[in-house]
Amino acid sequence: MDHIVTRNIFWLFSLQGLNYLVPLAVLPFLVRVLGIERYGLVAFAQSFAQYFVLLTDYGFNLSATKQIARIRSDRELVSTYFWCVIILKVFLMLVGMVILALLIMAVPRFREEARLYIAAYLAVVGTVLFPTWVFQGMERMKYISMISGGTKLGSALILFAFVRHSSDYVLAMFILSGGMFAAGVFGFVIAIRNFAIAPRIPALADIRRTLRDGWHLFVSTGATTFYTNSNVFLVGMIAGNAQAGYFSAAEKLIRGMQALLGPVTQAIYPHVNHLMERSPTLALRFLRKGFLWISALSFVSSLLLFVCAAPVAHLVVGSTADFCTPIIRWMAMLPFIVAVSNVMGIQTMIPFGLERELSRIYVVAGVGSLALSILLIRHYAAAGAAASVLIVEFAIVLCMWEALRHRGLNLMPFGAVGATTAS
């Protein structure tokens, strides 16, 4: 594996402990202190805020990373592109604020907990400021890990010190969101200083081009976030805050397992895009090297999670573990399935110009997931949502495999290394 990629994986893994262990330490603390009902309400508000994160991201974490990786040797172009993205993200953030304000005024459920949703929106501001796409495009992953890990640790310490009662749930949300806001501020300043980002007022044509380039990835990531994030929201709306709490606790465990391979996938994506500038065949050969061992590692983690579901649930939610264990078991294979999906979709289809195909897959999955989730949640509450996620993710992998096969892109390490790009 290329030494740049290896170095980035090392940096991401070296601080991944903070990004992995801190949320897992915070989770049982919040469940026990706030109680499952209030924890479920916090999880519901976080899930709602993710829709605004989706709006402000607009797919830039993929489209902008791809562009920065290709122009990173020209700092003038990087500066112009940087401000195009920031201007668009800030504009979308302001649109989101207006939408949130209207919802708080018009919907009783949101009006009753207005402070909670305002506190949750602080995390949206943080994600707007944090230019993850710059660090990834420049292949400087250590900054992401250092900033994210440090602020998460700081937030956890403040949380442990000041959150004492179930009535502190709004304070807990403010602390969690405040950590993301602090990460955004630090990341923004570090990116400008370390990559010599010069002040620029980009032309309207450049802003429009940036908006247009991100559209298909916005649809793809939007559909993905819709079907992955909507389950906590739907469980809360249909089955109540307690069931939302159980589902959120199980989901955070699953995402923690998925995060173990996060450094690898984060480091691979910009490097594949950089290789594409030289040769699609080189990029495909590089992807083949990682596909089997990424799949193998993620399968082992999924198997362990399935076998150890009961003791893990007891550790996290205590005496209510019986409600959480089946949810964990339904989603235990997701780290494996999502890892395979990531390599095929994000790492392969996007660099090879198959954004439209990927977008269609995610849109169909999003619509299908919504219908399936509502049906299963009505009958089986949180466990039904977990079953829906598993079914949809597996269907996505099958569709991606067929799309790659149709284009002659074979990720298996045997056969000819032929690579075609989309027209």
Question: How do the helices and strands line up, and which of them pair or pack?
Answer:
Blueprint: H1 3-14, H2 16-57, H3 60-71, H4 75-106, H5 108-112, H6 114-129, H7 132-137, H8 141-162, H9 169-194, H10 204-213, H11 215-239, H12 241-259, H13 262-276, H14 280-307, H15 309-317, H16 321-331, H17 334-349, H18 355-406
Helix pairs in contact: 1-8, 1-13, 2-4, 2-6, 2-8, 2-9, 2-11, 2-12, 3-4, 3-13, 4-6, 4-10, 6-9, 8-9, 11-12, 11-18, 12-16, 12-17, 12-18, 13-14, 13-17, 14-17, 15-16, 16-18, 17-18
Counted by DSSP, the helix tally is: 18
Strand fraction: under 5%
- Report the span from N to C terminus: 29 Å
* Main sheet: strands, sense, barrel: none
Number of β-strand runs: 0
Structural category: mainly alpha
Which value, in Å, is the CA radius of gyration? 21 Å
The tally of structural domains comes to 1
Helix content: over 70%
Seen as an oligomer or otherwise, the chain set is single chain
* String of helices and strands: HHHHHHHHHHHHHHHHHH
Can you give a write-up of this model?
This protein has 423 residues and is an all-alpha fold. The chain has one domain. The protein is built from 18 helices and no strands. The protein has helices at 3-14, 16-57, 60-71, 75-106, 108-112, 114-129, 132-137, 141-162, 169-194, 204-213, 215-239, 241-259, 262-276, 280-307, 309-317, 321-331, 334-349, 355-406. The protein is globular, with a radius of gyration of 21 Å.
